[in-house]
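Deliverable D4.2, example record:
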Amino acid sequence: MLSLPLVLRAVAVSFALVTAVRAAHPFLCTDASGNKVALVSAEGKIEWEYECRHPQDCWVLANGNFLFCHEGGALEMTRDKKVVWEYKAGPDTQVHACQPLPDGRVLLVENGPCRIIEVDRAGKIAKEIKLRTPPAAIKLHDQFRGTRKTKDGHYILCRKGEHLIEELDGNGKTLRTIPVPGDVHEALLLPNGHLLIALGEGHKVEELDAGLKVVWELNQNDLPGNPLQLMTGFQRLPNGNTIFCNYLGHEQVAGQPHFFEITPDKKIVWQFADHEHFKTINQIQVLDVPGDPAKGEILR
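Output generated by the structure prediction step:
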């Protein structure tokens, strides 16, 4: 028979395990090397998936549909896999960023043609912003990544291969360029005016204030036993925690979590690893955070 202290300890451990399961979020993610978009339950079960070549951005829309881009374009799809909107990119073009906009359009960035476009519900280009062509040494695949339109109508553009963030006004005029220490994959303008930046194989994340001073950073070895490999997509949660994707491709160390949720003081509260079903999770949106992404209510 167990003593009372051992019984209490067993109950405490059991409660902790249950709490940990309940703390996990259901989520939608893209697996670039695995060539699929997947919906995963809070228990870690794949509930929905769709095959496409090198998907990048993904969104759970207010209507319950999924919006995502892949190398050859972008789709909005219902949960029964009915395509309700689609954009097909032209030849010698790659699409690595998308964003739903309040007017129903979808923002896309095209590597190759070097442009930001806003595509209407009929699949037609309603607005085009021509971008400066990167230097010839930058491969097509490495030109641009996660790009966002802000509430004031500006564009925050990730020039991946150039290690630059560019802010443009609504007409495409460059307002500023920000050199960064890595191949930037995503840059998000936070409500307080700060920029949160995932720096790819720079093995770090930085938060810059309005004066571009680093006010918070996550360095390669800040999380014991969980080094940063290639930092890609992320999501800021209402409680102030952030989920960061740690892309495990490019011959990086296998076996680590695909992503983790950390507190502002760099404590891991949730992490996910499923190397049987996923290769390189590079973007995520959790489903249990309320808000309409097209209205900027989800910080992605």
